[in-house]
């Protein structure tokens, strides 16, 4: 049996790799194919009457690991400079405002139609209001650089802000000045911890001479994250700052404190660390969505009692996103379609205590919202040009040999957000 399971996992992960390779050509997000593959395996095991162990306990573990590696992968790709301040600000408010608006809207509906307490309704609404970076980031590789950067910033910040707001509500039964003060102290503590940890990890990354050096670094990153999380600190801030520091080290080389790390040698190690992080994120993400697809029950997908709510929630997500993009001066296509729910929604949903859960927000509703937003994103990407196609189709209206200038005139809305 163990040999069969190992062979099966190897085959499934190779399929996941093929899905990732072909996503650029098919424009079908690999997560949809992974869910379908996991669900198909579940049907086959049921048909041939094969008994398997209970894998459901592994889902939160894989989800936490995936969240760490995916946010780290995304933040390593981001470049910070003065020309991107506008993009960062628009991404921040693009992540925060929809979470607040959607969470309060859904909470009102749950409270009004289900007569649940407003605080519990709000807590259960947050998982439905957060964009999943685990789905959004891998799905935008073929978009223009400005659009890709916006999605990486927005989805990563959405994860972080969603977890912050969720934890604030979950651990504070009463919202008052004291709870806000404790929350502020937690933010200050995680910032101090992050600075110390980042400097320490960077030193180790550049000075470990042993041939095994990156796995211990990743293990320490996970350890710091989980320890901070145990003490109810906003641990994702540490992951984001660590990735931003490593990804932008070349722009910090002039600082005296950075020069002590021998930045030229450290940059070489960062490239290797980045490659390992990307491959690790792929592995954990593939396992998570394969397992999630395997655990999906057909009855939950086809549950008509929650389907109308799921459709209403998706319509609200799209409507709020359209207004947000228009007010921000950002293009609707393809950004309107890229607001999937996924890994972070599942993790937050599983974190809701039994005394705080409400019957409206159940497995069926979460699964249906995730699938509907993923399919909506797929349809949007299928009907949108990739970065290469957009560049080929884009006329040189300025007559200038500098394509970047022509590109800037073709996308004025996004450039006004601060992107270079």
- Write down how many β-strands occur, each being a DSSP E stretch of 2 or more residues: 0
Integer tally of domains: 1
Q: How many whole angstroms does the radius of gyration measure?
A: 22 Å
Number of discrete helical segments: 19
CATH class, please?
Mainly Alpha
What CATH architecture do you see? Up-down Bundle
Spatial separation of the terminal alpha carbons: 55 Å
Helical proportion, percent range: over 70%
Question: Sheet bearing the most strands, described?
Answer: none
Structural class: mainly alpha
Unreliable runs:
393-420
Shape: globular
Query: Strand portion, in percent?
Result: under 5%
Order of helices and strands: HHHHHHHHHHHHHHHHHHH
Offer a quick outline of the entry:
By secondary structure, the chain is mainly α. The protein is 73% helix and 0% strand.
Describe this structure in words.
The chain has 420 residues and is mainly α. It has a single domain, classed as Na+/H+ antiporter like fold. The chain is built from 19 helices and no strands. The protein has helices at residues 2-26, 30-47, 58-77, 85-114, 118-125, 133-139, 145-170, 177-207, 214-230, 236-247, 256-259, 263-295, 298-301, 304-328, 343-351, 363-382, 387-393, 403-410, 412-415. Helix 8 packs antiparallel against helix 9. The longest helix is centred in the middle third of the chain and has 33 residues, at 263-295. Mean pLDDT is 84; it is low at 393-420.
